[in-house]
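User: I've been going back and forth on whether these two constructs are worth ordering. Before I decide, could you fold them both?

Assistant: Sure. I'll take them in the order you sent them. The first construct and its structure tokens:
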Amino acid sequence: MRDGLNPQKKDALVACTYNHRVIMVVYIPEFRGYYAKMFEVFKLSIESLIKTLPKTSAITLVDNSSCEEVKNYQIELHKAGKIESLILLADNIGKIDAQIGAARMSREPLITLTDCDILFDIDWVQETIKVFNTIPKTGSVAPYPSRRSLTYATFSVQEAILKRKYKLEFKPIPENFENYNMFLESINWQKEINQNALWPILNVGNVKAVVGSDHQVLTLRRDILFNTVPFEPSYIKVGNHSEENYVDLPIDVFGFFRLSLNKYKAFHMGNSPEAWMYDKLNHLSYKSESLILKLDVNMKYPRSKNRLQFQLRKKLIKELFKFYVPKAYKN
């Protein structure tokens, strides 16, 4: 039996308060081994994120079956109003399925997918939105540059460069040297010794973006998740090409650019906190402004694409682009 009229029917429309949402998946099942110091790393990450978000951005945390202490910490963040949304999963469903599921239920036109070991710096959202507003074909932007991702899932931007629609420059960015080595160290890669190493820079007006990105954290168009990302679940906990298949390649296959900021506005921490991370966090102040997003709403998203045709085009672009890249960058 129903008694009366559901009051929600009188005001059926739901307002969209934000234009950008950050989705962070958290999985810390214990405090030993690999995860011994991950809780402290996660706290640094979420605190830096809360401090650096403008009013037009919101946070969704997805707890992927962490231990009770970590889960309770996230619940307290939600109760305090520091995060807008919290999803608690009883079982670990894998990083990509947790990210994509939460992203598809969000309504904001820009979605940031991030690991819980990223330290965010001031103005990272402002600089990210500036790239989207300036370069219409932008599909994703990472908040820190990737010097060696020029030819990974970037065939769409390579084609645009070869057609002279955009200009690519190879220049050193000496101020990135220290931060770049910090990133390489965080993933146990060999450090860069050349302070004047070249970076692939797309120059559009007063905006500079590096071509390519890593995928520990990136901001992408929400529409891509409904038009180019596989519809079936990944069923993979982490790695095994899951990020490649569900994030990197879909952006590129359908003609969008994978870019990153040309300066470091975020940092990869790894699984162990260091003194510099606390220093950076302590120098952050809370943001309060609203940001205007100007995405091209008429962008076409084909639901199917001839993969064979794309592979042939990709192979041709790859060969032609080799002649465009200076030898000094390859070394």
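The second construct, handled the same way:
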Amino acid sequence: MNDIVEQFEITFNQIHQHLKELNAFPKNDNFVELLQRSKLKHSVIRVHFDQLKQYAKLRNAIVHERISGDYYIATPHEDVVKALQRIKRTLDQPPEALEFATRSVLYFKEDTALSHVMEAFDQHGISQFPIYTKERAFSGLLTNDGIVRWLSQNHKNGRIALEDVCASDVLPVEKDRSVEFLKASATVFDLEERFERSLNENRKLKAVILTESGSPDDLPVGIVTTWDLIKVDRRESDED
């Protein structure tokens, strides 16, 4: 077999295997079908979708339209093989979720005064903070929307007393603040899978908190929101 064709086919088949894994080995393992499914869930595939779809056409021409022996109706250019190999290497070693997370994570304890948390919102321009118990167990995600909701429910004659109000007093008004946890070493595929699953379950995932062990009982080393996922697409596009 022509060396350049062999390199192309081997790399293409390895990418096909990755697509099967990303889709839990469905019965229909047609390359383009898997590509379409993966595009909806994973940034790496989304960025390279059109490119891989064209490579699939080339692969079909090589496999099904061979004229004779090592004479093919189409032969990939060396640059095409190199581009395919770059995509394959990205799938072999996808970026870590931590690369796209906000670090370092600001967090507070349940007994932190609400006035102090509000100052942090204003000072750092962050819209949400994880809250922990004294034993360092995750208690909930406190958001600026939640604080506004609590203030609207607790004013008297236009005045609000904050002297004795703590973060834990506000957490009960937080609505649908779904949070999940991942190991800091998890890949961007693991991260995107969490958000995709929550979407399929009609459950709004507000954030994924990254800890060393993936346990809620560990302090956060990074936090990823839906806004941070935009950075995934942008980086992949810049590297393409």
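Notes on the second construct follow. The chain has two domains: 3-92, 99-239. The CA atoms of residues 42 and 75 lie 29 Å apart.
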